[in-house]
Amino acid sequence: MTSSSTNLSLVDTDPAELAVDAIVIGVHSTAGEDATSGRGGSLLLASGAESIAAAFDGALTETLALLGATGGAGEVIKLATLGTITAPVIAAVGLGPEPSGAAPAPETLRRGAGAAVRSLAGSARVALALPLPDDADACTALRAVAEGALLGGYRFAGYKTRPQPTRRDPVAEVLIAVPDAADTGARNEVNRAMAVTAAVRLTRDWVNIAPNEQRPPVFADAVADAARAAGLGVEVLDEVALREGGYGGIIAVGQGSEAPPRLVKLTYSPAEGGTGKRVALVGKGITFDTGGISIKPSQGMWEMKSDMAGAAAVAATMLAVADLKPPVAVTAYVPIAENMPSGSSYRPGDVITMFNGKKVEVLNTDAEGRMILGDAMARACADGTDYLFETSTLTGGQVISLGKRISGVMGTPELCERVRTAGDAVGEPAWPMPLPDDVRKGMNSDVADISQVNAGMERAGHMLQGGVFLSEFVTDDVAWAHIDVAGPAYHSGEATGYLTKGGTGVPVRTLLHLIEDVAANG
After folding, report:
1. What is the C-alpha separation between 291 and 296, in angstroms, rounded?
2. Annotated catalytic, 370?
3. How many CB atoms lie within 10 A of CB 31?
4. Which residues are catalytic (predicted)?
């Protein structure tokens, strides 16, 4: 059950002469009362639309304003061209105020392209004549437009058995107008965008699949099959191997379900050893989280199918790595379990021996993600790595602290700052958070090395408790970062920009940016 793909290519034909179903142009808002009044003169055409404006003899902005266009970021206004240009429809997407530089910010372009392509569902071919600078920022702008267009065109196939009269197919082909379609740098950006967005779209698919169709063995097989097809090394540990290997956290969480847990290891080795640097990725794969014995309230529990979003992101990132071939070794560890209440579930009060030998006192079975992640992170360190990036829908505390768009980051301070920088660059914002000593002190156990949560069940610093716990499973020689995406990984509202309802694919693009950063800078 997967989404359809969108084809992307470059063109250097005059946008006014392109034989497409619709052409997308950008418009900026201007200062003053007219910016929101809808009267003529309140809009400024973005670069890239010059020939189209000329075909309308200077009346294009006035006409768009009469139709209600304000130039507000993400707004899309459609206009029938009536033969004025070759394309029958113009879609004007708002890009906000005119930028002070050569082009709007990359995220503005990404969101604008996504909103426009999404609004043109039902069209076979769409061209984008959006502002692309001819300076050092050209590749960054083109990357943003390409990613936005491909992600904005995403739609999960779903499970409806009857035709939906109002449901239109996503745009099948997107053309991006550039000065030179044969330029090597531009073509490389398109190829990269195709690989990256394919990973994001696959992550969204995996998150959106119904949980009864994606229990741990099924999800593990899907990840393993995709990885083998991409040429990655694959190792899958079943429940027997996990028990024999001492993965107490994964076994404990998974033992309450009739669908047993798994750990999938994926390996990418660069040609001739690359730079010699090693990156480990770990992602939380709880295919459904009831809370176990500490059961969750029923309201909203259906969204707990997204509790494997970290695992989906990590696995899909590895497929993009196999395609992009960075000169660093990358290994992923994907622990997968289903947290269910039953006669065989783990219990509050249990003491679990983790992969690295630490004893954990369980106080809340709904704090299961850190249990499976602890084992996987300890295994990553045992195998050897220079950097460890772990991502998970770990805590509701992340949403309370930072909202639904900004991920929380904890770990080695320097690496956390690199995560923040990467997130800003790709439009997946993240914010570093501390790991206070007093939070760790509150997790002291009377009977074990550490309690799974605060020993007094105190909720203060809930997000930080998760990071503090995970720090116990990282060796001192490894730089690490925990990325809590509880809010950003799933969008429960209406579509906006290049985000559609359901899985978002966060933080695939951040992880890939970080891998490329390690390749370039160590």
Report:
1. 5
2. yes
3. 9
4. 296, 370
